[in-house]
Structure formats: structure tokens, C-alpha cells
């Protein structure tokens, strides 16, 4: 079965829309973008479309790449202090002369939508209520929507980034899965993936997961976003394994659309909306 991420995203957006039907004002997000970058532009357009589709306020604030770190920190501070702004996204990666860490730290953790702030990361680590990063949250939401029970499941996560692999491993652990976090130094990766119930790939290499690494019980979640011959592809050899596994997410149309939709859930949470 091919998992339809667009359908799951649609369901989330419908739910979010209903949550705010009686709110006194709309939840609002500010995206801060330095310079120009085609893939970042594409992401921002999607973000705008997602917010507009549920009638949330979206404002893009553009600055030159020459903006200094001090200037950016001041802009963030102003947005932190604006009571009409519920969420702030600073588009990553930032130009080399600006410290991403200092920028992330400057965002009010209550307005953090990416879940990158160390306070949110620390809370997640301890199993407390926290804004969770959108990509791992999207993966968890897919399991939820498909009613895939994670309790006691053998799950292999490939990739240990701070944005995907690491937080995802923590979230899965909190759902009582047995998590194996694999990475570039893992010996005999296939021996791990072949016996797993669920394989999640987040390495950023096209065609990384191949048919020799899966079994017919595998549920494969492809978090990758790579460009190959001018096309957007994931980390999985999708054509090579789609008929061989139990379930698989495509790219595009898998985790990506759900990632954008769950950002609305984080925004709603910051806004103080009640959404079931
Ligand atoms: N502070 C920050 N937070 C981010 O979350 C962040 C960021 N910076 N910088 C850029 C990356 C990239 N990213 C994407 C999310 C979803 C799709 C997505 O929905 N993709 C569609 C495909 C769209 C197409 O066809 O081009 C899909 O998978 O179906 C793409 C890209 C979030 N990012």
C-alpha cells in the first residue's frame, strides 16, 4: 500500500479549520527569510498556501543576505514582543556570518514553530509537553492516522540529525517502540533494517534504501528530499521496493505535505487554541 500524505494533510487541515471557527482573531505566523534560494522559496510558497487554506495569517518578512546577526536578533526580538504574532519561522540554512544556534535561542520558545529551541528540545527529551519539530511530528502523525500501533514494534531510524533522526527516536521511544538509531558508522545496516517492522530513512541520499534491505512486513517511511535529474526524490528506491513491502510513503506526496500541515498544529498550540 502506498501511503497518501496529501490525504492525511487534508484531514489535518480540515480539523484545524474547524478549531478556529469561533476564535476572536486568526492565529498568525511570521516567516523570516534572508536572501533568495529556489528550494527555500518553494517551501515558503507551500507554507503560505497551507496557512491560507485554513484562513490563518501568514506574513513573509524578507531581508538581504547582508543583514547582520545583531540586526536579525533585534528583528526576532520585535516579533517576540508583538502580541499579535503566535509563531516565528526563520528559514534555515542561514548565511555563514550568522550563528543558527544564537538565532534559534533568540526565538521565544512559546513562539517556536520548528521545535528547534533548546528548551523545547530538552522538554521533548524528558517526555514533557513541548513544541515538536515538524518533520518527526509528521511521521508520528502518519502512524496515528493509519492507526499503526507502535507499542513493542522494532523500528529502525536511519539518520541522527538534530532535526529528524534524533527527535524522532525519542518520540518513538515514548510510544514504547524498540528503537535502533542507525547512521553512517552502523555496521551491516541491512541486518538491522531487514528484521525491523518499520524503517524510517532520513539521510539525504537518493536511492539509499534498496530492495535487499527490506522485507515483506516492512513499513517504509521516506523522509528524504533530494534532487535527482531535476526531479524531487526521497532516500528510498521507491520503484524498486514499492511492491515488496507492506506500506511505503512516496516522495513527493508522502511526509512533505504532512510536515506542512502539522506546522498548523504547532501554531494552534502556541495560539492557545483548543483542538482535538
Ligand atoms: N526553519 C525551517 N523550518 C523548516 O521546516 C524548513 C526550513 N527552515 N528550511 C527548508 C526546509 C525544507 N522543508 C520542506 C517541507 C515540506 C516540503 C514538502 O511539502 N514537499 C512536497 C513536494 C513539493 C514539491 O513538489 O516541490 C512533498 O514532499 O510532497 C518541502 C520542504 C522545510 N524546511
Automatic annotation (TrEMBL):
The UniProt similarity line reads:
Belongs to the tetrahydrofolate dehydrogenase/cyclohydrolase family.
Q: How does it assemble?
A: Homodimer.
Which Pfam families does this chain map to? THF_DHG_CYH (PF00763), THF_DHG_CYH_C (PF02882)
Provenance organism: Fusibacter tunisiensis
Q: What is its EC number?
A: 1.5.1.5, 3.5.4.9
User: What exactly does this protein do?
Assistant: Catalyzes the oxidation of 5,10-methylenetetrahydrofolate to 5,10-methenyltetrahydrofolate and then the hydrolysis of 5,10-methenyltetrahydrofolate to 10-formyltetrahydrofolate.
- Give, as in the UniProt entry, the pathway in which the protein acts: One-carbon metabolism; tetrahydrofolate interconversion
Catalyses which reaction? Answer: (6R)-5,10-methylene-5,6,7,8-tetrahydrofolate + NADP(+) = (6R)-5,10-methenyltetrahydrofolate + NADPH; (6R)-5,10-methenyltetrahydrofolate + H2O = (6R)-10-formyltetrahydrofolate + H(+)
Boundaries of every Tetrahydrofolate dehydrogenase/cyclohydrolase catalytic domain copy? 3-114
* Residues in Tetrahydrofolate dehydrogenase/cyclohydrolase NAD(P)-binding domain copies: 133-270
Q: This chain belongs to which protein, by name?
A: Bifunctional protein FolD
Keyword list, A-Z: Amino-acid biosynthesis, Histidine biosynthesis, Hydrolase, Methionine biosynthesis, Multifunctional enzyme, NADP, One-carbon metabolism, Oxidoreductase, Purine biosynthesis
**Positions with a binding annotation for NADP(+):** 159-161
Q: Which residues belong to the signal peptide in this entry?
A: none
Output the Gene Ontology terms for molecular function: methenyltetrahydrofolate cyclohydrolase activity; methylenetetrahydrofolate dehydrogenase (NADP+) activity
